[in-house]
């Protein structure tokens, strides 16, 4: 495990296959007698209903779906941060019940420790996961991943001195530096402007070419999903969100955003994704209008 | 052409000077005006016998002030010591009592910040004891400890307890859940999470609590020393009142204020240091 750090291009052995079986998530409503007394009861909320998904090792999978359908909930369940109400999640055939360093998580709001420098944030992760590694080795790995995400020169800066794009680079480096079997990203570029987002997408594509880890990416952007993914999972609207369809994205790699639309399948796939998303979003809006009066 | 360039160069410089004069120098001037008017009215009032016979004149007070402050460390026996010795005695008590109080308040605050059960169990004690004046503990301290010095420390320790305790609890239970999730996804142990994540994140709140505590401790020490006697600025004030030396009392008031200001600034510096990059 440690030796694979020295050579990040090493493929299959470190990556993992993920299987979700009949996963449900029901957020309990407020129904205690105190709530009843105060007339504040609310029914249980079924966020996810019967999610089944197989993710092969070394594939890049995007999850796309209308806002509020339960994408973050699903990712948090895989990360182990939220327990599923029912169902099983297996990573390399092993049941997952709590968070662990076999899964690296990139958060939408970066979640950097504000009192640590860039270097310290990354080394904190390495030291936590590999407490017996020598300090020299920890520092070498931290430096290696700082280089990988293009942050050399900013090691001693604190998060408040960084732009959003740089912060997310730290988030990505921190998640990768612990050499996880699978990388989980929840709208990692959602808070960035379009230019920075495109730039970071290219970086992620480049890094993925090197590492080929299993990745699950949640995104709102169809172009982003098409550029990066091997498979795109389309979810239906909530409540009781399900997986509507899984699309294969066959474009050869390395991909370039400028030339992606030259593949004949590109426009077809894009149209299908757009139609699905707009259909679901319209249904969400209609349901909302009906509920209001 | 040269004239135009001269204009262009000199204009922005003048603009820069004006705001500095406006804010800082104006405030300083106003401060001095208030001081001079106050001292003048005081001096005039005493000359015209407006106040009671006890009130010393401003000039006499300033002379006495300078006398005390220019030679703070003389020692002619227990009832005739420089004000520096008294300040040091009070500071030693405040710092010792404050350290004892903080050594209890910080760990306890972390504990109740981490555990809902302990928090709910301890909360009634805190709620009931917090509003009690620290001086109410003084007779109890004298009775239990049978020693005025330890009683003063006891009172200061209790004084320093509450703000630190409450702020520590607040800081620990309000750590950004995002960084806690990071620690969880890395599989960090409970101890490592507390030391490396929760404590640094709560440090600004904890130091804010310490800052309030030392401020109140410095307030309370004067009253405690008036009651227990011996040494210290509180004792000094009481002693000078018995001698009817009002100028010395006024001197002590200014010195106490300056020392309190200094303590507050020290913790203010500590506060900016630990909250670097946060909030
Ligand atoms: N702790 C909770 N308690 C109750 N309901 C919740 C809770 N967390 C999420 N939900 C509900 O579950 C649904 C799914 O939320 P989730 O955050 O997973 O959606 P999402 O697809 O990530 O949305 P977005 O695209 O806006 O990020 C939402 O309707 C939300 O209101
Ligand atoms: Mg979300």
TrEMBL record, chain A:
<dbReference type="InterPro" id="IPR005890">
    <property type="entry name" value="NO3_transporter_ATP-bd-like"/>
</dbReference>
<feature type="domain" description="ABC transporter">
    <location>
        <begin position="18"/>
        <end position="262"/>
    </location>
</feature>
<dbReference type="InterPro" id="IPR050166">
    <property type="entry name" value="ABC_transporter_ATP-bind"/>
</dbReference>
<keyword id="KW-0813">Transport</keyword>
<keyword id="KW-0472">Membrane</keyword>
<protein>
    <submittedName>
        <fullName>ABC transporter ATP-binding protein</fullName>
    </submittedName>
</protein>
<dbReference type="GO" id="GO:0005524">
    <property type="term" value="F:ATP binding"/>
</dbReference>
<keyword id="KW-0547">Nucleotide-binding</keyword>
<dbReference type="Pfam" id="PF00005">
    <property type="entry name" value="ABC_tran"/>
</dbReference>
<dbReference type="InterPro" id="IPR027417">
    <property type="entry name" value="P-loop_NTPase"/>
</dbReference>
<dbReference type="InterPro" id="IPR003593">
    <property type="entry name" value="AAA+_ATPase"/>
</dbReference>
<comment type="similarity">
    <text>Belongs to the ABC transporter superfamily. Nitrate/nitrite/cyanate uptake transporter (NitT) (TC 3.A.1.16) family.</text>
</comment>
<keyword id="KW-0067">ATP-binding</keyword>
<dbReference type="InterPro" id="IPR017871">
    <property type="entry name" value="ABC_transporter-like_CS"/>
</dbReference>
<keyword id="KW-1278">Translocase</keyword>
<dbReference type="InterPro" id="IPR003439">
    <property type="entry name" value="ABC_transporter-like_ATP-bd"/>
</dbReference>
<keyword id="KW-1003">Cell membrane</keyword>
